Amino acid sequence: MWETRIRKAGLSSIITFVILAGLTGGGDVGSEPLPIDPAGTRKYLDYIRLTPQEIDDWSARRSFLFGKHDPEMGFLLDNRSERHGVDNSIVHYQYDTVTGARRMLNHAAKACRINTYGDSFVQCEQVNDGETWQEVLASHLDEPVRNYGTGNSIYWAYRRMLREEKARPAKYIIFNLYENDHHRNVISWQRIPYGKRGPKSIHPTMPYLRVNPATGEFTELPNVCPTPESVYKLCDLDWIYATFKDDFYLKIVVARENLKNGTPERSYESISSLAADFGMDVEVNNPQVLRQTAETILKQAGMYATLRTIDKVAEFCKASNRKLLFVLSYGSIHVMRKYIEEGIRFDQEMVDLLDKRGYQYTDLLEAHARDFSSFSVDFDVYHDRYYTGHYNPAGNYFYAHSIKDKLIEMMDPKPIPYQENP
Predict the structure, then answer these.
(1) Most trustworthy range by pLDDT among 26-35, 243-252, 413-422
(2) What distance lies between CA 55 and its chain's CA centroid?
(3) How, if at all, do strands 387-388 and 390-391 pair?
(4) Do 51 and 240 form a contact (C-beta atoms < 8 A)?
(5) Which of 411, 414, 408, 403 is nearest to 121 (CA)?
(6) pLDDT value at residue 208
(7) I need a surface site. Which of 49, 182, 278, 389 has the fewest CB within 10 A?
(8) In this structure, are residues 364 and 178 in contact, taking their beta carbons and an 8 Å threshold?
(9) pLDDT at 11 over 60
(10) Does pLDDT of 29 surpass 50?
């Protein structure tokens, strides 16, 4: 309230911050004693909290151009240009002002039967609008493919799907499951795991899951900053601490910080408590056990969140008479090499669920393994053929043609190029 009045009065962000610090106790200012903080949680939250100037710049689109505020989703992607494409070229991103989808080029005027959801491997980060796998598919199928991708979690993509399918429904849904999205399902505020990463993204709050595979908990939670004004609460240390002090992911991140700073004992109690909640019989009393326990808990929570979300995506599509194709995508050279050279994958539990349920899916890890077998090059050389961090244009072509056969099998009527009498 005080902050709103000050801002409407036209005072500077710096003055706003100083006054807020005195009124709320932000920045450890005020008459109330600070809470007991043995793990260093408050200190870390103080480090990552936003400043009014950062939020001003984000709102005015002067900085953090990756995304703009959205009440439900926390953010949506916005028009921008970045020099991070093939050969260090500039990549241009444009998004429809009505749909929020990435700009469609091929057959954009036609009715759209295919909507796609997922993270940055759906959004197609690091390639231009016309180089995405959706545009490759659209050109080949002679009909448009809408791109609702962004850079976030599987649960976030599910929430986006629920919203967009009300406004612009499609008969066919392609839903991407990227290797690094599982842990993101339980992120309430992106700055908790990502910290301060420069002016690309402000790393806002967003909808998330609270889960526990030991108890079966699966709680869907909303974005805690749904209005532009509420984002300014992320400047107030007392509010941040009260809101996030018990956050699941924060406990993991603080444990990592304590390990890095040589004070692992500060997180023994919090991680021991989490382990007990997750049904783990482990005594956390040294750095190695702390590290292993914290990362095991996070992996279990993330994968469980994904498995439950997969079922929710499928339930929605079945109830609304949509056809669904999951795509398993990967980018990590370590993950891909492990599978290609040793046949080991970290997400076998997810593949088992897809098989057990009879869900339609394309596994790009397996597709790359088959493709690699036709080359006589080192795996690093093979990987560079398709990736510039994310897929390069060749990688997006590989994605499109790896999924097209299963997609076409699902479609009725078939796309014009696949009709007997077009």
Answers:
(1) 243-252
(2) 21
(3) antiparallel
(4) no
(5) 403
(6) 98
(7) 389
(8) no
(9) no
(10) no
Greater confidence, 421 or 335? 335
Q: What is the CA radius of gyration of the chain?
A: 23
For residues 137 and 96, is the Cβ–Cβ distance under 8 A?
A: no
**CA dist list (Å): 221 to 130, 164, 205, 310:** 35, 19, 11, 17
Nearest to 186 by CA among 351, 329, 304, 314: 304
Question: What is the three-class DSSP state of 407?
Answer: helix
For the chain, the average pLDDT equals 92
CB contact set of 292 (below 8 Å; sequence gap of 6+): none
Residues 151, 159: Cα–Cα separation, whole Å: 14
> 287-319 vs 154-167: helix axis angle to the nearest 10?
20
Residues in the chain: 422
Q: For position 33, what pLDDT does the model report?
A: 53
Contacts of 293 (CB under 8 A, 6+ apart): 271, 274, 275, 280, 282, 284
Q: What is the mean pLDDT of residues 56-74?
A: 97
Question: How do the domains of the chain map onto residue ranges?
Answer: 1-33, 35-243+310-418
Question: Residues with Cβ < 8 Å from 350, sequence gap 6 or more?
Answer: 177, 303, 306, 307, 310, 328
> What is the distance, to the nearest Å, from the Cα of residue 53 to the centroid of all Cα atoms in its chain?
25
What are the b/e assignments for 60-79, b being 16+ CB within 10 Å?
A: eeebbbbbbbbeebbbbbbe
Angle between helices 393-410 and 364-372 (to 10 degrees): 120
Domain 35-243+310-418: assigned CATH number? 3.40.50.1110
183: tokens are 């842990």
Burial of residue 134, with CB atoms counted within 10 A of its CB: 0-12 exposed, 13-18 middle, 19 or more buried = buried
371 neighbors 397 (Cβ within 8 angstroms): no
Tens-place pLDDT, residues 231-241: 999 999 999 99
Are the C-beta atoms of 248 and 279 separated by less than 8 Å? no
> Is the model's pLDDT at 118 over the cut of 70?
yes
DSSP 36-52: P-TT-HHHHHHHH---H
- Contact residues for 21 (Cβ-Cβ < 8 A; gap 6+): 27, 29
Average pLDDT over residues 247-267: 97
DSSP-based three-state secondary structure for 192: helix
Handedness of CA 171, 145, 77, 346 (dihedral sign): positive
